Structure formats: C-alpha cells, structure tokens
C-alpha cells in the first residue's frame, strides 16, 4: 500500500473538508457551507446518491444498544450536513436547535443485534456516544451561514466533556471510501472499521485489555499523566499543552539535538517527488532536491500538532517533507536515522523524550496501527483503509 502521506487523499485534507472540527475549542466548522446540489438553504432532506450500507455493531459488553447514540455529520459539496435515521442527507439548520440550545441528531441503534444504516456521499465523522447524548449546536458562521459546533472532549468547558464518546472519520465519494479510526485528539471508545469491496480490510481493532493498558501507559510517564481524564478519555498532548496540562518545552532538548546534528551532516528525506537532502543553515533546515524547501526550528507544539513550522501544504514538495519530519520528531527517529522516513516500527519511540501518547495508542491495537498524531500515516502506520469499489462498511464498538 502506498504510504498515505504520498496519496492524493490525506487525513489533513479530510480534516479541511470537515471544516476544522479538531480545533481546541467547541468550534464552528471553518469551511463556509454552499448549497447542496439540487437544494436551496430551506430545502427538505435530499435522498443520498450512491449510498453505502453502514452497519453499527455494539460489542462493548458494558452498554446496551439503547445507551448507544450515533451521529453522522460532515460536509457535502462544502455545505455542512448530517445524516438522518432513514439515511437521507439534510443540511444543518439553526431551527434544529431545541429549547436547550442544542440539536438532537442522534441515531438510535436497533433494539438488539446489529444496526443497519445508509451512508451517502460526503466527508465527515461517525460519532458514538455512550450513556448520554452529545451536545451539537448549530450556529452562524462568519459568512452568515449555518454551521455546526463539534464536541471537543479535550476542553473542560465543552458541554459534551462529561460524555463518553469517540469517532471515526471518512470521505465517501465516486472515487471510493477512505476511512480511519482516530486518536489524534483523544482516545476514549475502542472502535474498529471493517471495509468490504475490492478487498476485505479491518483496522483500528484494540486488543483485549488494550484500552486499560493505554490509559495505564500514559499515566506512567510523569509529563503525560495529567492527560488521563479519569476512566473517560486520554487527551492528546497537543491539546494538553494548550490546556496547561503538558509542558510547552517538553521536546525542546530533542529538537535542539536534531538541529545540532544536521548542522554538520545531511538529512535525506524520500517522497514520491524524489529525495530531498537537507542541512541546518542559519537556524533553518533547508533541503535541496526536486525543489528547495526550508523549515524553521519547530516548537514542541508544532511537533505535536504537525503544524506551525511543520505545516504541510498540499504542494507535492514542502507538504510531504514536512509530513516525514513531523513523523520523525513524534517517533523520535531523526537522530538515529539520517535517511527518512523510518519504516521499522521497532525503532519508534525508543528515546525518553518521545510522544508517549502515540506510543501507547499503537501498542493498544492488534495490528500496531493507530492515528496517534496527524502525520501517523507516514510509512503507513495509521489506522486507515480505503477501497475504490466499496460494498459496505462496518463500525464496531469493541469491548472495553
């Protein structure tokens, strides 16, 4: 399988399509909605084109079907939408907010057994909430259009903070289904995706006892321990940093060592565009090759969010190099290997200063794949699968 940072569709593109759902606040989606094909802003729900069978399976062993609430929300053609229980696509609307100020977009599971739904063409997320419902809210964005506030479980003031919930991400269109489980923001509910079609693929499955083991592993590292929120969730260190729970200079010594090491020797990064050769010149890591690209010294926050100095534009040159750098910093492989990306998982997270959160997430899954940070797709270590001729998708809430 082609490394995902070299594919045309990447998680960072999917997140743009979701409209900024991962920012560290109960945030309005950032992409301005546009009219759905064949609808007006006041149109009724439209039948979905090319619907894909979606099966939800509750195998938690801790919650009955009546206690599981599903939400399918996202974008279609730039407009923010949600899927109704009968599988139709409806634009979000201010009138969807109830007397308490929040929407009720929940889709209930069948009384027992599996629940069969229909997934239309769209980019979005499938949220699952256990016990209580999530508090989505439709607001008006800067352009005056209705926009959806997503839950932000890592923000203590978020109205859904106390709700046990998680999500999977997907883009489904005429080109196929592209989907993943994610721990980029937090980890709470073990989820597994099975995608059938040209192939039969499964990803994201948390091994028996893996959830508890991941919580315990994060608690064992002093700087990471505050990221564990009771038995509800573990939040990613980037969000922890923004909340004052994680040291903002945690990775600074490792970053400084990388900058020092590559002042005197070459760092080589290979992408689909070719091999880029870089050295630190004037406190910037500058690469020559298919194109000249250059990076300022990143901060700990830049590394954890794979942003800022490590932002990855979709330009085919700077973006892929930034992705490999971000992965190398998070996996702490840049000092050990001057040729990147590193493809041997046994070499990841071997230093004291590393992303122990991502390390714990990978150790928790059966196949070792997880989305522990935004560039975890580098060298194909993310819990991501795709199929150009899908026939069905199955989302399983696995045992705690």
UniProtKB/TrEMBL annotation:
Leader peptide range in chain numbering: 1-29
CDD domains, per the entry: GH64-LPHase-like
UniProt keyword terms in alphabetical order: Hydrolase, Signal
A Pfam family matched in the record: Glyco_hydro_64
Domain annotation GH64: ranges: 49-399
GO molecular function terms listed in the Swiss-Prot or TrEMBL record: hydrolase activity
UniProt keyword annotation of Kinase present: no
PANTHER family: GLUCANASE B (PTHR38165:SF1), PTHR38165
Protein name as annotated: Glycoside hydrolase family 64 protein
Species, as recorded: Streptomyces viridiviolaceus
């Amino acid at each position: 399988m082609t490394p995902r940072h070299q594919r045309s569709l990447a998680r960072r593109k999917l997140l743009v399509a979701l409209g900024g759902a991962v920012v560290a606040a109960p945030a309005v989606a950032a992409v301005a909605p546009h009219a759905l094909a064949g609808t007006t802003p006041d149109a009724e729900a439209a039948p979905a084109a090319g619907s894909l069978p979606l099966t939800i399976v509750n195998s938690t062993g801790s919650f009955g079907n009546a206690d599981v609430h599903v939400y399918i929300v996202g974008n279609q053609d730039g407009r923010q939408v949600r899927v109704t229980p009968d599988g139709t696509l409806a634009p979000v609307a201010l009138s969807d907010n109830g007397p308490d100020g929040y929407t009720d977009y929940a889709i209930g599971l069948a009384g027992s057994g599996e629940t069969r739904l229909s997934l239309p063409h769209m980019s979005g997320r499938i949220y699952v909430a256990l016990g209580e419902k999530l508090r989505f809210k439709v607001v008006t964005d800067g352009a005056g259009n209705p926009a959806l506030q997503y839950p932000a479980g890592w923000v203590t003031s978020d109205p859904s903070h106390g709700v046990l919930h998680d999500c999977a991400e997907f883009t489904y269109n005429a080109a196929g289904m592209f989907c993943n489980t994610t721990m980029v923001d937090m980890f709470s509910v073990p989820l597994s995706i099975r995608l059938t079609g040209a192939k039969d693929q499964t990803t994201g499955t948390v091994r028996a006892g893996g959830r508890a083991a991941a919580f315990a592993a994060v608690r064992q590292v002093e700087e990471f321990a505050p990221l564990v929120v009771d038995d509800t969730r573990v939040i990613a260190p980037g969000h922890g940093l923004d909340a004052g729970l994680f040291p903002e200079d945690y990775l600074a010594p490792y970053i400084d060592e990388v900058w020092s090491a590559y002042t005197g020797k070459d760092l080589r990064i290979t992408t689909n565009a070719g091999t880029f050769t870089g050295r630190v010149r004037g406190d910037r890591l500058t690469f020559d090759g298919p194109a000249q690209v250059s990076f300022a010294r990143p901060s700990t926050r830049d590394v954890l969010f794979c942003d800022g100095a490590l932002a990855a534009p979709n330009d085919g040159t700077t973006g892929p190099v930034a992705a490999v750098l971000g992965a190398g910093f998070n996996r702490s492989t840049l000092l050990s290997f001057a040729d990147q990306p590193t493809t041997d998982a046994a070499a990841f997270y071997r230093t004291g200063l590393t992303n122990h959160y991502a390390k714990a997430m990978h150790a928790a899954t059966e196949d070792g794949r997880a989305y522990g940070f935004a560039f975890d797709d580098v060298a194909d270590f993310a819990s991501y699968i795709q199929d150009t001729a899908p026939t069905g998708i199955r989302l399983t809430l696995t045992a705690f």
